[in-house]
C-alpha cells in the first residue's frame, strides 16, 4: 500500500510486530558488518532485534522471517529488484557524525533527539542528502573506487581529510592481530 509505514510483518501466517525505529535497524546493519560473526549468527541477531516476539517464529518459518526482515531493511524493495551498487561508499559507524549532520539538515531537526523515527522515514531523509561534507566524501570515495582522477580541489580536500575520506577496512580479531604483529616488526 502506497504511503504505509510497516510496523508488522507477516511470517508463517502470523502478523508479527517489528522494531521499526531507525536505531534498531541501524544496529542490525552494524551486526552485518561484524567480521567475527557467521552469517547464521548475523541472521539470528537480526531476527532477535527485528521481531519483538522472535520466539513465535517456528524453525520452518525462519527463512521467511529473514527474507521479510531484509525486505523491510531494503525499504520495501525485493532483493532481486534491488539495483544497488555492491561497492561500499559509506559505513554507518565510521561515518556516523557526517551522516547525522546531513540527515539533520534534511529533516530540519536533530533526529537523534527524537524518541522515534521510522526507519523508512530516516532512509528517506538519507536519500535526500544534498551538497555538503557527506556528499563530498562520498563523491571522492566513488571516484577513487572507480580509479577516476580527482579534481584539484577534491585532491586537496582528500589530502587534508584522509581519515574522513578513506573507508576503513574492518578486520577480524585474528586478522588485526596478524597486522599488529607485522607492524611491530618494523617499529
Automatic annotation (TrEMBL):
<dbReference type="Pfam" id="PF06854">
    <property type="entry name" value="Phage_Gp15"/>
</dbReference>
<protein>
    <submittedName>
        <fullName>Bacteriophage Gp15 protein</fullName>
    </submittedName>
</protein>
<dbReference type="InterPro" id="IPR009660">
    <property type="entry name" value="Phage_A500_Gp15"/>
</dbReference>
